[in-house]
């Protein structure tokens, strides 16, 4: 482990629990993940009016890809066991409130993907807010990523 402190205990715990794993070399480059996030949020924007539910899920995916970019840049990768929640825990512990919208997007995406009531649908306005939040997360990640080193 390096000498960093913000969120280090959480990252260490997630590594011990095998919810995160270490990656090195070419696999520790977050920029392709950011590029992918930009493409995904553009796709969400294109579907916003025609299919709000699908556009919201894409907006969430874009936000997750941006957050994953931050982890990958640090040589960290969520495992299938850790999944999306490990991404949320990691970025929340390290970067605090700047990435807070990710958790709300994740929870709402889960409601849409696994609804208790099939009539629970995303509105166009809610989807627009989700796309805006994802875009802000991508912008924040693009500013943070150059400052990161390996964990």
Explain what you see.
- It is a single chain.
- The protein has 151 residues and is mostly helical.
- Helices cover 63% and strands 4% of the residues.
- The N and C termini lie close together (6 Å).
- 38% of the residues are buried.
- The mean pLDDT is 93.
Proportion of residues in extended strands = under 5%
CATH topology category name:
Four Helix Bundle (Hemerythrin (Met), subunit A)
Class derived from helix and strand content: mainly alpha
The mean pLDDT is 93
CATH class: Mainly Alpha
Total strand segments: 2
- The CATH superfamily is identified as Nucleotidyltransferases  domain 2
Number of structural domains: 1
Strand order of the largest sheet: 1-2
Brief sketch in words of this structure:
The protein is mainly alpha-helical.
List the topology elements:
Elements: H1 8-16, E1 20-22, H2 31-47, H3 52-73, E2 76-78, H4 83-95, H5 101-113, H6 124-144
Antiparallel strand pairs: 1-2
Helix pairs in contact: 1-4, 2-3, 2-6, 3-4, 3-5, 3-6
Keywords:
Four Helix Bundle (Hemerythrin (Met), subunit A), 63% helix, mainly alpha, 151 residues
